[in-house]
Structure formats: structure tokens, C-alpha cells
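Record type: monomer structure entry
Structure origin: computed from sequence
Chain ID: A
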Amino acid sequence: MPGFVRASLFMIEKNLQLIRKELPPDVSLVAVSKFHPVERLMEAYEAGQRIFAESRPQELAAKVPQMPADVQWHFIGHLQTNKLKLVLPYVSLVQSVDSFHLLEAIEKWAAANDRGVDVLLELHLGVEESKQGFSEEEILEIAASRVFPGGKGEKGAASPVRIRGLMGMASHTEDREQVEREFARIESLFRRIHGMGLPGFDHLSIGMSGDWPVAVRHGATMVRIGTDIFGPREY
């Protein structure tokens, strides 16, 4: 891993420079800004960062009006269906769709609000039972059903939900071989679905501060990095 400067020195610009130097140009950098104040986010913005990710609906909704209008917001946390109105009006991508129930609720919200919503399907990738997400079989069922992208919704209309790819989190472990296996698993599933010709299915979001170089080797198109940019959480 590159020698990142921790945010105790408040060198967010330097941290971003170090990451971008190592990151391939075709891989998007998503700055995980959850639990960090807007002042830190603005430091990253002024250093050229434009994609930020939050995991709590209320925090996202509070930060959006305080940041410049050209910021792209992603949501990466577990999203409850009663919080859709705090998230969907603001984000360009929901990375963490983890159940049929949530997917259907997003489709209904999008149809009611005449708005398209881009999402990633979250694969339950790590060994932790607490992790959310679909099984591989469930994701393949969605990909084959054509109920969402490229198909029809419940009332026969084209679905406003666009499934753009997969997201996953590897196990929290020091075992690099296990992380490699888990990223290889989601890469294989991604390539399999991509080969089915699903329209717009082109994003693989894997890799965080501790393992993103491994993720890049396994086909990541975007990495979600927080600590290596902003340092430890402030609250």
C-alpha cells in the first residue's frame, strides 16, 4: 500500500494525490465521507474530488445543500424503505441494494416520482453473517428476469430502475488470500452477467481503504475509499 498521510495531519489533498497516482485512470474514486464534517469534504472537493458516498440518510440529506451542486452522491449503506425520500432525490447511484423488497420499493418510488434510479446489486460477499446482500443465485434470478432494466415493471411500463452492476465488501480480515478469493468470486459473477447483455450493466464496486489494490486486480471499476483520504472517523 502507498504511504498515505493520515488525516491527523489534515493532508487530504496529499492523500488524494497518492491514491490517484496508484489508481488506474478507468477506475472511479468514490470518497467515503460518512461521519466526516463538511469542512473535510470541501478540502477533498477543492483537491478535485467530485464523487462522495454516504451511508446514513439523514447525514446525506444534511450535507447535500452544503456542498457544490456538481458533486455526485452515492449511497452505500443499508437503506430502509421508509428513508427513500431522504436518499433517492439526491443520489446518482444507490450502491447497496440488498433485497428484493428494497429493489421493488425503489422501483415504486421512481415510478411515482417520474425519475430514473441507477442502482448496484449488493452481493453478500464476506463471511460475516451481519453483512447484507443477495446470494449469487438471487442476483442471477434478477438478471435473467428482465423485470427491471430492459424489461417491464409490474404494470407493463418500462422500469425506471437501471441495474448498473454489482457491489461487494470483502471480509474484514488480514488474510489476503481470502480477500483475493472473494473479489475473484464477485468478478466472475459480474463478468457472467455482463455477458448476458444486460443494458448498462458496467459497474463493479469493490475495494476499500484496506484492500482496494486487490480489488483493482479483480476488475473494479470503482473503489470506495474513506480512511485513506479523510483519516479516522470524527464521530
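Annotation 1: The two ends are 26 Å apart (CA to CA).
Annotation 2: The beta strands are 28-32, 51-54, 72-75, 93-97, 117-122, 161-167, 203-205, 222-225.
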